[in-house]
Design a protein that fits this description.
The protein is mainly β. The chain is built from no helices and 30 strands. The protein has one domain: Methylamine Dehydrogenase, Chain H, CATH 2.130.10.10. The protein has a 6-stranded antiparallel sheet, with no helix packed on it. Strands 3-30-29-28 form a 4-stranded antiparallel sheet, with no helix packed on it. A 4-stranded antiparallel sheet has the order 8-9-10-11, with no helix packed on it. Residues 359-396 are annotated as: Disordered.
Length: 410
């Protein structure tokens, strides 16, 4: 459904990577009252099902993690150039969830992807264009290990799906560590998506019956039962923070999950007016005062107005239909971007307050829309972050001076 022509060029760079470039105009299908729904063809980089999972915004680009295909997906929101890059000589598939990190001295402008079937954490330096990876086999092996990744302090964290550990990576030291989550849930398919809010991390329960909470300062995990809102399997997929609450996207559950850490109250908002059934949405992000969830099996993007508490939807059927369309959503500037899983186009949405014309690319800002606050002031023993007086979670004293960011992956 791409309007206009594309050029396709294979180019080898730095002796180790191949890039497939594509220039595509966006095709709109919604009117100004509903905003603009558009798509950017990714077929020049890969086709088929289960292509990418998770998407992150950093600078003027969005990045998507290769799940079932080799190319690491880049989209320049200014030039509208789409690139699929392949690094030869190592397994280039099997990641689920991606985060762009800013605001960490010496570590900024780096993208990390959580290993799902892969055995390494993927690391991409957007400044140098270099890709690297770190083994995570000390904490889990096999398939379906982690889904979703977030940054807090100087570390990045991945949510355990089949793994029994919350994955922690300290980029400054190059160290991988883990915290057991067995006290909260065991087995497979536990959590999908993770987000930072204040000094804690929250992971959305998929088959687990508790929202997972990790305390940055104590290094302890805890859980909050979500049985009052939904039970069973496949409940929520993806989580984001807005204001002082966290929100999880309903996959099989019929309610948007809401948790207020301040009051420790958990609640839900029905989404049945927009879609029902299994596999509805995958990934959620905030833009302005609204939340948006990417349609997986649902035929509409879910929109939740945090001011009014109302839910609504915008049809994406003109861009793609069927199951498993998109997995993960990110905000950059005044637009939203969703990662194509089974769909053949990256989903682009411009909310009505900023909608202009279909071929205009508005210059995005360089600051992620949803930014968790920095951890609370450090205790006295953490005053010297470089020397690290206390080492609760791999280097938990190191992060209190930073303002970590999670850029809307799942």
């Amino acid at each position: 459904m791409c309007l206009g022509s594309r050029s396709r060029i294979w180019r080898r760079t730095a002796g180790h990577a191949f890039r497939l470039w594509s220039f595509a105009r966006m095709a709109a299908n919604a009117g100004a009252l509903d905003g603009e729904v558009a798509g950017v063809s990714t077929s020049s980089s890969a086709t088929g099902n289960l292509k990418w999972y998770g998407i992150a915004a950093l600078g003027t680009k969005v990045y998507s993690a290769p799940f079932g295909v080799e190319p690491f997906l880049f989209y320049n929101t200014v030039t509208e150039q789409l690139t699929g890059e392949i690094w030869r000589g190592w397994n280039g598939t099997g990641w689920a969830g991606i985060v762009g990190v800013v605001g960490m001295a010496g570590l900024e402008d780096t993208v990390y992807a959580a290993p799902h079937n892969a055995e390494q954490l993927l690391i991409y330096d957007t400044g140098t264009g270099q890709m690297s990876h770190v083994s995570t086999t000390a904490f889990a092996t096999g398939r379906g290990k982690w889904v979703g990744i977030a940054a807090l302090g100087y570390n990045v964290y991945a949510a355990p799906f089949n793994a029994e550990y919350l994955l922690i990576f300290d980029p400054r030291r190059g160290q991988v560590s883990g915290v057991s989550t067995a006290a909260i849930a065991t087995g497979s398919r536990k959590w999908i998506g993770i987000v930072a809010l204040g000094s804690k991390l929250y992971a959305a329960p998929y088959d687990a019956q508790h929202l997972l909470i990790y305390d940055f300062w104590t290094g302890q995990v805890s859980g909050v039962s979500t049985a009052a809102v939904a039970t069973g399997s496949d409940k929520w997929e993806g989580i984001t923070a807005f204001g002082d609450k966290v929100y999880a996207a309903p996959h099989k559950a019929e309610h948007l999950l809401i948790y207020d850490p301040g009051t420790e109250q958990l609640s839900g908002v029905s989404t049945t007016a927009v879609a029902t059934g299994m596999g509805k949405w995958s990934g959620i992000v905030a833009l302005g005062d609204k939340l948006y969830a990417a349609p997986s099996d649902a035929e509409q993007m879910l929109i939740y107005d945090t001011g009014t508490g109302q839910v609504s939807g915008v049809s994406t059927a003109a861009i793609a239909t069927g199951g498993g369309k998109w997995a993960g959503i990110a905000a950059l500037g005044d637009k939203l971007y969703a990662a194509p899983s089974n769909a053949e186009m990256m989903l682009v949405y411009v909310p009505p307050s900023t909608a202009t014309t279909v071929t205009t690319s508005t210059m995005p800002t360089t600051t992620p829309t949803s930014t968790p606050t920095a951890p609370a002031p450090a205790p006295a023993e953490c005053a010297d972050t470089d020397n690290g007086a206390v080492d609760r979670d791999g280097d938990s004293c190191s992060g209190y001076t930073t303002n970590p960011s999670w850029c809307g992956g799942v």
